[in-house]
Amino acid sequence: MLRLVLVVTLLLSVLPAFSEDTLQDRIAATDMTNADAVYALAMWCHEHRLPTTCNKYLNLVLRIDTDNPDAREALGFVRVGERWVPKQYAPAAPPAGSAPAKGPRYVAAPGPTAAQISWDLTPPVDPDPSDLFIDKYIERLPTIDKEGDDMDISVATCIDPKYWPSACPRLCAALLRDSFTDLYGASTMVMELGHKNRTEEARPLLPFLMKASTRITTTPDLDAFCWALAVFKDKRCVPRLIELMQGADPDVAKSAASAVSAITHLPPAGLDAAKAQLWWNENCNLSEQDSLHAQLGASDDTEVLEAVRSLYVMRDKTLVPPLIRLLSSAIPAVRSGAIDLFSKITGNEWGYDPQGTDADRAKIVAHINAWWKESGDSFAFPETPGAAPVATDEPAQWVTNLDASTGTTAQEAENSLRARGMDSVPALLNGLASPSILIRLRCYELLKAISGQAIDFDAHESDQNRATAVQAWRDWYASHLAGTDK
Predict the structure, then answer these.
(1) What gap in Å lies between CA 470 and CA 447, rounded to an integer?
(2) Helix count (H) and strand count (E) of the chain?
(3) Do 97 and 87 form a contact (C-beta atoms < 8 A)?
(4) pLDDT, tens digit (0-9, with 9 covering 90-100), for 415-428
(5) pTM above 0.85?
């Protein structure tokens, strides 16, 4: 052992020495916007026994070029289908001579099933158990018309701030009873509390809703349950939603897919149980931000755009290079969404027309890339202290805030849009095409209230099926501006 220690010590003593200054020189000489240059810096760090710094720059490579194979492999990823996954989750190679597997390729380590996720089913403490006033409004929920006035009264009474402290624990206890057969009322309360920016007050209900959903299986109940889970945005709900996506009830499956989209930030178009399961396998142990970073590497530009939008809410600078890439997307709707967000971030539309020619767009994207190369290191979001002020479209920003789940942000946004009246309509019309179901619902309700019109619109429909209704609303607004609406 002593001989081994002496040999190792001797070897270390003759290895090339380096200083912090040497590392800083290498950093100063590296173009931090060039993936190849940053990868070379990472390899230099590896050769000089700086593993943490090496990993830092390998991750920077992926921020510049998400699909960079050298950096992915150096960080221990392998390609599975169209995605990169950690080696430990990659499927085992098939036996020699066997036929290739058919269908989607999942990672070898699936996430836990709904039954394997444990929930704390201890009801909250009731502050006044002797007051029985609220009990009748809870106990009648299974027997009253789900769409009737009695249901509305029960929901409104229970969520009244004066009664909710007792209503919540009693509702939790009721949901555990086999004899209590209503999921609709409690789920509607969650949605109403979310609408009033009181989501955290509703959160104790979540484990009990999850438990009750395994025995209460009527369509209206499960449909409302799915929308309640969309309010919570708790990824532990995804396995249960996948089960409902695979169920025989098409209405519930559709609502479950919308809830999965709200939780995972995956685009709703084409979202099926297989895609949801793949997301769960890869992301069940990741934080939301890490999941979004991984989603930036998706091959579907609409999926990348959803991740970018969510990272913008977090004010995460890593969204900028992928967002610039989306300006060159082959999908016009993605280009439109990308420039809308980019103009919010920079306060500048850059003369970019998402419907322009390929050559015109390429020139502007090249100009934007040059700006990012020059300013990326010093860039700060407009809200950052000391950042230059940026002119913002207030109604558009309020629409974006309509599905906020913290504080009073959503309620304040709704109040501001309502107060602005007809000046809010353009932003509300755009909100009808939002990827967020909650934004679409609230924009529709505000449009009806502000305009006095009752043009049909179903926020639950697909983008394609909603397009006719959105156009009808836009036609009305055009006639309003022309003074010809009646």
Answers:
(1) 11
(2) 25, 2
(3) no
(4) 889 988 988 888 89
(5) no
